[in-house]
Amino acid sequence: xxxxxxxxxxxxxxxxxxxxxxxxxxxxxxxxxxxxxxxxxxxxxxxxxxxxxxxxxxxxxxxxxxxxxxxxxxxxxxxxxx
Length: 82
Description:
Layout: E1 8-14, H1 18-26, E2 30-36, E3 42-49, H2 65-81
Antiparallel strand pairs: 1-3, 2-3
């Protein structure tokens, strides 16, 4: 059985404004935790799934261009012998 585990990326922001939080939300970030500091500030901890590139599944090998050229050349030689 193949298990796919999701990977995450994290970001911390010191005293984010509402505009910053909204912009990060649009980019897929989720607010996970807010931790107050001793100087009336706070750290916001954000996370989102890592963006991964999904490659298409290849079911058959792709022919090389030179293989097609070679096949045409062989066919032309055989036709010229007839």
